[in-house]
Amino acid sequence: MKKKSPYRYFKTSPEIIRLAVMLYVRFPLSLRNVEDLLHERGVVVSHEAVRYWWHRFGPMFASEIRKRRITGMKSSHWRWHLDEVFVRINGERHYLWRAVDHEGEVLESYVTKTRDKKAALKFLRKAMRKHGRPEMIVTDRLRSYGAAMKEIGAAHRQKTGRWLNNRAENSHLPFRRRERAMLRFRRMRSLQKLAAVHASIYNPFNSERSLSSRSNFKMNRAAALYEWRGLCEA
């Protein structure tokens, strides 16, 4: 049975929809910035159309990227870096937990109202259920991590130390730039959705230019674009 196209009720071509979603999620652009960039390319759409596309297709694209990378053994079981960053929603502090592998790829994002043992335990179980158990887990000195890992029998895998968790700290920067462009969040569900979609879409394009030659960077970028253009094809 032929798979139905997710674009079958849209007059706009799939290429334009994918481009609009990538521009909005990957870069710190507003909806009107994306509208202007598409207009320069001869594509006349409303910023409200870009908003609808992002809400409709963003999670779909992110889900397919995660499936492809997990199936292709892209997930690392060697070393994870865990960290949490606070995000304000309507003036109330929430916490965004992130698990990052040794190459800087975000494996899991999770939003909670607290950062106690219960929240850390739920986050760890969710990440390990999807990606398995790593050999080493690098964290900061937040006691919630140690208590949660002790309960699941992974205390011997934890490692803390000064500057050891810079990989996770640096992974917050693209999200912070995206947050400023969106002028903060109003609902916890919106934060969770954006964090998960942003991480999945940003991962294929996350190449450390300072650690690779120009030829390798161009090759990896071309491969990421090729993968992106093939998402959700009928």
UniProtKB/TrEMBL annotation:
Transmembrane segments: none
Key words of the record: DNA recombination, DNA-binding, Transposition
An annotated Gene Ontology molecular function: DNA binding
Record InterPro entries: DDE_dom (IPR032874), IS_Transposase (IPR052183), RNaseH-like_sf (IPR012337), RNaseH_sf (IPR036397), Transpos_IS6 (IPR047930)
Keyword Lipid metabolism: no
Single biological process term from Gene Ontology: transposition
Domain DDE residues, every copy: 78-203
Purpose of the protein: Involved in the transposition of the insertion sequence.
Name under which the protein is recorded: Integrase core domain protein
Organism: Ruegeria atlantica
